[in-house]
Task: structure prediction
Amino acid sequence: MATAATPSSSDERSRVIALGIESTAHTFGVAVVSDKHPYILSDARGHYRPSKGGILPREVAQYFSQVAGSVVREALSKAGVSMDDVDLIAVALGPGMGPALRIGATVARALSSKYSKPLYSVNHGVAHIEIARFLTGLRDPLVIYVSGGTTTIASYLEGRYRVFGETLDIALGNLQDTFAREIGIAPPYIVGGRHVIDICAEGGKFIEELPYVVKGQDVSYSGLLTAAVRLVKKGWRKADVCYTFREIAYSSVVEVAERGLAHTGKKEVVLTGGVAASKLLNEKVEAMAKSHNARFKPIPPKYAGDNGVMIALTGILAFKSGVPPIPPEEAIIKQRWRLDRVDIPWYPMILGD
Amino acid sequence: MVSYDPRRLAGTLIEETSLLARGAESELRLGLFFGRKAVFKLRLPKPYMDPALDSKLRRVRTIREAKVIAAALEGGVPAPRLYMILPSAGLIVMEYVEGPQLKEALWEGSLDPRRAGYEAGVILGRLHSLGIVHGDPTTSNYIVSGRGLILIDYGLSEFSASIEDRAVDVHLFKRAVESTHAGIVGELYGGFLDGYRESMGDPAGEILERVEEIELRGRYVEERRKSVWRM
Result:
């Protein structure tokens, strides 16, 4: 087992320190998190940004392998700890892009073996939910999880996060990026902290021509994407198309969440994942929650997107609730690992309890 | 010419009604319409939407629901009678069907489960053969009225003749039976299948095969989607 650091006080002795590794998409994130105040000891990240086009998994992996060592060192030095102080390593093994996931898994296996630290396998989606619960203090929320690859409404029921609704085709983040790219306003996708679609939508007004598709508990975006691109190519005013496109994309996911809220009877709502950084989406979710007398709290945009903090803190929850660590040789990536496949024995505990 | 404002008219109509239930997107209110007990289903404005999108959706959905009810009634499906619609106010006024939910009647044991199931199956089969799927055919949405079972709440209904959509309807009924009437699944669902096959005719075979397939996909909600991750 681990060669533990010499404890300086009883408080220090009971403190748990985790190193979390995230590498599912375009962010290689490593963070050191403790279960005691101030919790987040460091948060190091390397972002892959394509100069043109979309994200190519192989290029991401190449970039990750170049920065992995320095991101790990940065996380440890900013936290002021050494590997000896770390009690456990947590790594996101999925879902995500295979080549990218493999870099994080390799780094985690190596650190776990070399320093004899227990290794915890974390589901990336579950981690997005756990960081939202930790940051908002809302313990039993309906979760709206929106990112590049995911559009999911989930909530906890009988041991797991259950999926109430999701997209039937493309995800919200991917939808926005693809549209921006197709109409020639990206990359870069983010300018001055705002998505280029938000900039494009300024001064736009609602037009009737775009389809709004909510089917029961699910949204569908592919028709919206095709129709919006066609309107721009036909010469419609870009501001109007961008405004309406965004209005429909956001409203439909909020409407599915509203149905989920009525169905589950939950009294709290959180918004998490990369697209949760959107101010407008936060305003819409807040208005929806308010009209159903449910509580909503936004999370800081910094923690909406992928990061190592959420992986580390989920690892701590698993550790504290007695989930067994996995042997390094069993740290196999799972590209399509659904969040509703993961047992959540720590619920409703949050970090800090 | 006298101009009329549908929203003001809707406001006047629901003045003396009382709230029955509030769902995700609408209020059900009980009141009188020309002296008859009526349900006033009011789709509420959504504070998070652009007003133009909001009123478009409420108008379109109100019209669609009314069209479904009208087509169902015309095709002999026992549904609430339509009294009036005000699409731009999001209002449908329809018959208030007196009686307990099928769910409650079965719990009380006041109905023969096989016969009740049979009747529910005949009704869903008839709706499907009209090219309509219900979207939420649970034992809460059948009312035991003086003129037999009545299928209510067409808020999630659609015009569809697809095998998958029809099979999902049957599956939803079955799941409701299993979760709500665990002691009488065999009689209730058995009767339902007899009635459904009888009114649906030949296509029933393929639909019921698809129902089994949906179940084989595992836990329905978990497995029906293809993948979480798409880049």
About this structure: Residues 20 and 29 of chain B are 5 Å apart (CA to CA). Chain B has two domains: 6-95, 102-223. The domain at 6-95 of chain B is CATH 3.30.200.20 (Phosphorylase Kinase; domain 1). The helical segments of chain B are 6-13, 51-74, 102-108, 113-129, 163-180, 185-200, 203-216, 220-223.
